[in-house]
Amino acid sequence: MKRLLSSGILLLTIVSIIAQWTGTSEATATLIREKLIVAQSTHEHGKAKEIELKMLIDKGNQAFTLAQYSDAIEYYKRAIALDPTIAEVHYNLGMTYANMGMAEEAIAEYNKALVITPNDPEIHNNLGAVYLNKGMLGEAITECQKAITLNPELPAAHYNLGIINDRKGQKTLAADYFYTAGVIYLKEGDRKWALKAHKALKATHATPLEKALLEKLNADATLKK
How many CA atoms, within 13 angstroms, populate the side-chain half-sphere of residue 118? Predict the structure, then answer.
């Protein structure tokens, strides 16, 4: 079986042939070879880094899905060490910390993600949710309202604002947010969360809105029969 030349040897051979054809001096040919070798090495290193990065992110996501949060944190941190400019990894690490009740760490990672992608409504909403759980209602309102400004159809942000205003005793405003969240959840086909929004809305004693959402839920159930 004929042995194939390695890419490095092949590259040197090609450069030597070109040098002979073009009459390039040996010194110039050597310089060209060196530059090409460096370029090739850099390219190969970049591809290896890209493959490792994807592997770490995939493993982190898998560990997160399995609720193996300590493993997920390790994988995400290693991915960030390779490339700290990927907002998704900071966001995923933030969610992992949030699920572990590590609020300060979650806030830090969400903010790092927002430095990279400042107009991501999901990140603003999740940051707002962490502030909400810490009882920092002012900060929570700011982040969730930013989320709605960026995406008015984000039901989780409306739901969170319903909780925030309910805690502040602003029942009417809370009811409006719960109603809107329920309608959007239904539109997205998420009946489970639409029912949660209805339950929260009912607790505000906003009877007309509660009945209106209940009618939509009943109509949705009839359509699915």
Answer: 1
Give alpha helix (H) positions in the chain: 7-22, 26-65, 69-82, 87-99, 103-116, 121-133, 137-150, 155-167, 171-187, 191-203, 207-223
Residue in this structure with the two tokens 């759980």, named with its chain if needed: 133
Question: How is residue 165 written in tokens?
Answer: 């205003």
Q: Which two tokens stand for residue 1?
A: 């079986």
Q: Which amino acid is at 162?
A: G
For 71-129, how does the pLDDT look when each residue is reduced to its tens digit (9 = 90+)? Answer: 999 999 999 999 999 999 999 999 999 999 999 999 999 999 999 999 999 999 999 99
For residues 155 and 193, is the Cβ–Cβ distance under 8 A?
Answer: yes
pTM: 0.78
> What is the CA 174 to chain-centroid distance, rounded?
28
Listed in sequence order, the residues at least 6 apart from 216 whose beta carbon sits closer than 8 Å to its beta carbon are 182, 183, 186
What is d(CA 213, CA 175) in angstroms, rounded to the nearest whole number? Answer: 11
Q: Using CA atoms, how far apart are residues 124 and 150, in angstroms rounded to an integer?
A: 9
Instruction: Tell me, letter by letter, the H, E, C secondary structure of 35-48.
Output: HHHHHHHHHHHHHH
**Counting Cβ atoms within 10 Å, is residue 80 exposed (0-12), middle (13-18) or buried (19+)?**
buried
